[in-house]
Amino acid sequence: MKNILLPTDFSDNSLNAIRYAIQLFENDQCTFHLFNAYTPVVYDLTYVLLSPAQFGLRDPIRAASQEGLDKLTTELKEEFGTNPNHKFETIARFETLIAGIKELIVERNIDLVVMGTKGATGAKKILFGSNTVQVFREIKFPVLAIPSNFDYVVPKEILFPTDLEVQFSTAQLQVLKAIAKLHSSRINALHVSTGYGLSDEQDRNKTMLPTFFERMAYEFHDVEDMEIPAAINKFQEEHDIDMLVMVNNKHSFFENLFFKDTINQIGFYLNIPFLVIPSKQQ
């Protein structure tokens, strides 16, 4: 891990995700890129085409964004002290969140995006904020989403559900492996049996999967036929899982799980960090 992108709107929710990232990579040399996307409430074509500086004016909205980032950086350094492994950079940009993330992934050679996601009211339910859902859909890049109010714990047990329909690659699993190696984590691959047996492709993928995690703690779990959310919840209750990892593969159970119904209707109980890996990176 070298470059971690941390989008922030200065909310407690985004601050919690930033704190998680700093602790997760405490012993890893990396740069944290704090990014705030701002848009003036009212702007016209002149504002878009010509910056306020060209009129000899100070841009108060950009200034407020940069001041917020500078203040946040100071507070983080006060809270966590000086870590020689860590460097902070700030980006205040007149941009939409999605476009800004896409641009910065390329510009800053980003390895991982870490952001917060708001929990819904009501027992054991998670409501992914609209920004998080949009990022999952449009950013073909590893994204780690941290639930509101989640207190950092070392991710010793990582749950990795798979339908074995994806032919994995070393590059694709790089972020997962880096996190697991950093914390000596155990990766628990979970497959829900349908009762029909594995196809030849699934069987090949199952055989190949452990080769990606050589010299790492790895276990494969096959569970009885049940709904994917129920299987994840049941495993999480029985094994004290610290992080959930899924591949966002088009037409896979990930897409069915999160995007077929409105996000509010999904009965998926998620209260741990959630790493989403794209099937192919942008």
TrEMBL record:
It comes from the Bacteria. Residues 1-147 form the UspA domain. CDD domains: USP-like. Belongs to the universal stress protein A family. This is Universal stress protein.
